[in-house]
Automatic annotation (TrEMBL):
UniProt record similarity statement: Belongs to the UPF0324 family.
Annotated source species: Amycolatopsis antarctica
Family annotation (PANTHER family): INNER MEMBRANE PROTEIN YEIH-RELATED, UPF0324 INNER MEMBRANE PROTEIN YEIH
Signal peptide: none
Top-level taxon of the source organism: Bacteria
Name of the featured protein: Sulfate exporter family transporter
Subcellular location(s) per record: Cell membrane
GO cellular component, one term: plasma membrane
């Protein structure tokens, strides 16, 4: 390798080193404070790193390139966490309730975003994260919608904040309205944002509630691929080619996600492989979210804070209310 090649590779090497170090710190923070997931810690550390004035622009650009690759690989591996037979065992009533909850919550949150004056890109990301699977869904959707760099961090912060509140609120509200056992688990799985938050919210109701909650939550995750594909198609039609590069009709990483779901559903993969894939998926997504955080500008994040918080509150109430109603009617 020549000196010139080494110089050209410096920004990429620096980006890999910074991302790797941020990933390690995210896992350390998550182990010290278990209530904070590695994904959330990664995006916070990314925002802090991106705010360092001394970070060269070439390195920032390289972090962005690394981020895209990590993100797509992570979303593909996310498919190995989903087994269709387990989801189908929920029965038609619950599955229809999940589908209606996701659709109404997604479209309703976008409408609420317009009502409270939140930028369209941020509203789309909040709608995706709150209606499907939190930070992972936001990370998958950010590549197909027009949005500001700060919107990703804002949406993830809202998922973390309101999902954390839901951990305490869901068992309390469930007890108040008479939901117990598997019924509470179903509601937790349909209304709480992150998988880890669902586990925390359903655990007090017992093992049966927890098992149902996780499967119901994963049935929402199954809808990530068709949701991203549908939004991608809509964005292509909405933005003429003259306005710039159009999103692909169906992103390749979405097809990869579906392929992994199909592979997991065959039941041929041993548990050791699935456990390793789950860990690798988390590492890839955490690295990607660290990179997305590096692109954030604090000033823009602060300026949208109040309206974004209101949207997060309204969306949380919408998801919880629709989930409760559809389960009462169909579950």
């Amino acid at each position: 390798m020549t000196i010139a090649q080494i110089r050209r590779a410096r920004p990429l090497l620096a980006a890999l080193a910074i991302t790797g170090f941020g990933l390690v710190l995210a896992y350390v923070a998550s182990s010290i404070f278990p209530v904070i997931s590695a994904l959330t810690a990664a995006v916070v550390l990314g925002v802090i790193t991106g705010s360092v004035p001394a970070l060269p622009e070439a390195t920032r650009q390289s972090i962005g390139k690394v981020t895209k690759r990590l993100l797509r690989a992570g979303v593909v591996l996310l498919g190995l966490q989903l087994a269709l037979p387990a989801v189908l065992d929920l029965g038609p009533g619950t599955l229809i309730a999940v589908l209606l909850t996701v659709a109404i919550s997604f479209l309703g949150t976008i409408g609420l975003g317009r009502l409270v004056g939140v930028p369209r890109g941020l509203a789309m990301l909040v709608a995706t994260g709150f209606s499907i699977c939190g930070a992972s869904a936001i990370a998958a959707m950010e590549g197909v919608v027009e949005r500001e760099d700060s919107d990703v961090a804002t949406a993830i912060a809202l998922v973390t904040f309101y999902g954390g509140l839901a951990i305490a609120a869901v068992p309390l509200i469930g007890d108040w309205v008479g939901l117990t056992g598997e019924d509470l688990g179903s509601w937790a799985g349909m209304s709480v944002h992150e998988v880890a938050q669902v586990v925390a919210a359903a655990t007090p109701a017992g093992a049966a509630a927890l098992a149902v909650a996780v499967v119901v939550k994963l049935s929402r995750v199954v809808l990530l691929a068709p949701m991203v594909a549908a939004v991608s198609v809509y964005e292509r039609r909405r933005r003429p080619a003259a306005q710039g590069k159009r999103a692909p009709l169906v992103p390749l990483f979405v097809l990869g996600f579906l392929a992994m779901v199909a592979l997991r559903s065959t039941g041929i993969l041993p548990s050791a492989v699935l456990d390793g894939a789950k860990l690798l998926c988390t590492l890839l997504l955490a690295g990607a979210l660290f990179g997305l955080g590096c692109a954030v500008r604090i000033g823009k994040l602060v300026r949208t804070g109040g309206r974004a918080l209101l949207l997060g509150l309204l969306s949380t109430l919408l998801v919880g209310g629709v989930a409760f109603g559809t389960l009462a009617l169909l579950g």
